[in-house]
Amino acid sequence: MLKRFARLHAFILFGGLLLASACTAQSSTTAPYTEGTEYVTLPAPQQRYSSAGKVEVVEVFSYGCIHCAQFAPAAEKLRKQLPAGAEFKLVPAPFNAEWLPYARAYYAAKQLGVVDRTHLALFAAKFGQNYPINSMDELADFYAREGVDRAAFMGIATSAETTEKLKNDLALIQKWQVDGTPTIVVNGKYRVATVHSFDEMIAVTLWLVKRELSGK
What we know:
43% of the residues lie in helices and 15% in strands. It has helices at 66-81, 100-111, 115-128, 136-145, 150-157, 160-175, 198-214, and strands at residues 11-14, 17-20, 39-41, 55-61, 86-92, 183-186, 190-192. Helix 1 (66-81) packs across helix 7 (198-214). The longest helix has 17 residues, at 198-214. The two termini are 28 Å apart. Mean pLDDT is 89; it is low at 7-22 and 24-28.
């Protein structure tokens, strides 16, 4: 049985903000998945990542998490399988001091418009090719190898705006009761919980998305 892959385990002080640190039986003919087992409904007041738009499928992840690297191809499969009324989003988890640079790197890459071509490449470089990619400098080196302006990357990654985004992300991740990565949250309402495989995680997510789209 898959457990929450990277667990919360400590707290660190980050700019005045305490950052939490981290990484099925089919029960009826009408609902293939069970509340409290394969998924949980989050307590009210529920909160999406963005205030409006399509049904959100959010993956809480980290480039420092090997399980996220293993899930990344499945996450891409999920993104392509989403119906027209839903969209896939990534939220980096700033759970601990080691993962904070990765969260900063994601937002820099996003602002520079290179996430689509560097997301899988970063996982591959770190976990497949065993590049030492841990610090901000090492992350900047990686993106520079990918053709990204190093100074621009560092400027965005370490900016006050990025710091504020990470504070907001952490508060939302805690509200979603996420205690590990990768975790899927659907529309700020459901969190995928105990599953046996990445394929089942995708199946539960798609079922929850269809449920939201149908208004049930």
